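Database export, one record per block. Field names are fixed; values are copied verbatim from the stored entry.
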Amino acid sequence: MSVARRSGAPGTWSLGLVTGLLLLFLGLPVVVIVARSLLDGSLAAAIMTRVVLDALGLSLGTTAVSLVISLGFGLPLAYVLARRPFRGSGLIEIVVDLPIVLPPAVAGLGLLLVLGRRGLVGEALGASIPFTTVAVILAQVFVSAPFFVRSARTGIAGVDRDLEDAARVDGASERQVFTSITMPLARAALAAGLVMTWARALGEFGATILFAGNVEGRTQTLPLVVYSAFQAGDLDAAIAAGAILVLAAIGVLVAVRLVHWGRVLDARGIG
């Protein structure tokens, strides 16, 4: 036994070294951004500036609207994919998942070609959508809605169908089965999907800058403030705005973990 431990010691050390280096690489840049913004006071100063306040308000407002749209359209789609399999559903899943792996800049270009003034749909509508707040919301929905659909689809598919069938036998309608059985049992996955969807929308940059532009007070969200400040040579402002996004991302990850542990406790009958 002692020989095995001695022989495994180098492997353990090398594993710890590699793991530690990767964690340092992933965590140190984030820690430095937050620490520097706090130590030099740039975070407190940035929060009080009009540009950051406008961008923060725009980001929160547009992400709230995009979240509602993702929920309203994504939940029915997730239910169909999880409960109503049909020929071609695999192709639909590919279409839903595609924005996740698609470069954001390509997503913005595609939206511009479809919804632009001379786009495939934009010309027929006769409305100027690009470079407006509506364009910001549409860009956020495009890149973030798939995260909710994926999570909701998994959650709904994991609900025991016997429980749903038992409710139907007792006279419950399909709507009652969905709202009283399926939704409550899949609530953890739905909540996690909503949180991740909001986080993705909040951090959206590439599709937004191509499709909605970077107009201060109208389409300039927090990620665009970081970009604009850095381009202008104002490193402190860029760091401060970046720190706000980092803190928001940490809050999102904490919320996801809380949702996960709530699901674990429910499964064990605790709480």
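Remark 1: The mean pLDDT is 85.
Remark 2: Residues 30-268 form a domain with the MetI-like fold fold (CATH 1.10.3720.10).
End of record.
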